[in-house]
Amino acid sequence: MSRALLLAGHGSHLNADSSAPVYAHAARLRERGMFDEVRIAFWKEEPSLSRALDGCDADEITVVPVFMSAGYFTNEVIPREMGLNGRKCCIRGKTVRYTAPVGGHPSLARVVVQRALEAGATGDEALAVLGHGTERHRQSEANVYQQSEFVRALGAFPEVLTVFLDQQPGMMDVFDLTARAEVVVVPLFIADGWHAGETIPEGLGDLREDGRRLHYAGAVGTHPSVADVILELAAEAAAW
Amino acid sequence: MVKREPYAFGQLRIEFDVQTPVVHGPAATGEERRIEAREDALREWVRDDALGRYRPLPTARTMRPGWYVRCEPGFSLDDALEVIYPLAVRHQRMLAEGTLRLVSLQRVFDRQSGRYRAAGKLSAAGREAARRVLCNRCVKVPLWDGETAGSKDIPCPEPCSLMLSLCREAALWEEAPPAPAPIDPSVAWAAFDEPGNEIRETYLRERSAPANEVGLLR
Prior knowledge:
The complex is a heterodimer of chains A (240) and B (218).
Chain A: E1 3-9, H1 20-32, E2 37-42, E3 60-65, H2 72-82, E4 88-91, E5 94-98, H3 108-118, E6 126-131, H4 138-154, E7 159-164, E8 182-187, H5 194-205, E9 213-216, H6 226-238
Parallel strand pairs in A: 1-2, 1-3, 3-5, 6-7, 6-8, 8-9
Antiparallel strand pairs in A: 4-5
Chain B: E1 7-9, E2 12-17, E3 20-24, E4 33-34, H1 39-47, E5 67-70, H2 77-84, H3 88-97, H4 105-110, H5 124-135, E6 140-142, E7 154-156, H6 161-175, H7 198-208, H8 211-217
Parallel strand pairs in B: 4-5, 6-7
Antiparallel strand pairs in B: 1-2, 2-3, 3-5
Helix pairs in contact in B: 1-2, 5-6, 5-7
C-alpha cells in the first residue's frame, strides 16, 4: 500500500512568498522519506486544491491543511474543492484522510516556545501568542486561545497572553495585559508575509513604554519543526 | 542509442544532450543562463517574469526568456516540468488515457461560497470575454470550454482560480462599469481590481468594443 502526504495551503495571486513555507515543509518531509509521495496544493496557486488528487499515485492520501486556524478554509473550502466528505473518505478508489489544521495541534506549542527563545527570550518574560482573529469567524479566535492554553501547559514561560491583529484584545494593548517588564510576541501565522513580516512588526515597533522591552519572533508557520507537527497529524490520521 | 528528438512544451523547448534532457526557456538574444537542477532554484527562477513580477499562473505566457536547466540524475525531466508547469505532464497523460475529468466554468461557479459566489452572476458574454482574455495568455488548452487538445498540447481540465477571480471582478464591473485606464506594466499580473492591470484593461476594452472589433482581437 503506497502512501502520499498532501499539504494544502492558501497560496496567493499577489504575494510570491505566501506559499514558500508550504514548499519548504514539503521538501523537508520528502527528505525524510516516510511517504512515497509528498505533494502540495493551493486554493490560489497551482497545483490547485480541486485537481490535487490528480497528482497522487498512492493508494492512501493524507491531506494536512497548512493553516493556523480551523475555520472557513479548512471546514468549507478545502473539503469542497477536493471533494472530501468527512475526515476519511474514498475518492476514485483512493482512501483520503483529512486532518485538522497544523495550527490546532497541541505539539505546535513547542514550536511557539522555540520561536520565542530564538527571538531572545529567556523564559522570564510574558509570552504573547498573536493571532489574526476576525469578528466574522469565532472559531478562528477559539483556535488561538486554545493554542495559548497548550503553550501555557508547557510551563516554559511564567505568563502566556493572547492578542490579535484584527480583534480585541489587540496587539497594541499587550503591555496593558501584563506587569512583566519584557514581553515576547510570537505570531501564530503561516508565513512571514504582509502581516507577520510587515504590518505587525511595524505596528509593534511603535509600541514604547519606559523600562519595558518587547521581543518579536518570526512566524510560527515558517519554523522547520512545523514539519514534525505535520507528521504527528498524519500519524494520528493513519489510525482512523 | 536512439537519438531523442527535441520538442516544444508550452513555452519551453526540450532538447537532449545525448540522453540528458535540457529544458530551455523562451528564446532570447545572447547567452542563456544556466539554472541549477534543483526544485527550489528552478521554482524561484520561473516564479517571476522578465519585469520581476510574480507569476501566479505558472502556465501564463510570461515566462522570462534566456535560460536553461540540465536535468541531472536526481532531478528528472518530469521533476523539472512539474516545477515549471504543475500537473501538466500528468494531465497530458490522463487525457491520452481517457481518464481526465473535465469541470465546466458553471460547475466551478456553482460550488463557490464567500467572496467568489459573485462570479456566478457574470453574463454569458462576460464569461466568453474572460475566457478569451485570460486563456489566450496561457499555454494550456481549455478543454473545459469545449476546445480539443492535440497530443502535444497541455490540457486544461478545469477553470483555474485566476479565471474565477477575473470572473468575480468582471461580474462587479457589469454592475458598475469602471473607466478604462492605460495599461501599466508595474501593476501586478493578477491585480484585476487595480486600474492599469493588463488583463483588466484588455477585458474592459473587449467588452466595450463593437462585435466586429472583438472578433479582430481574438
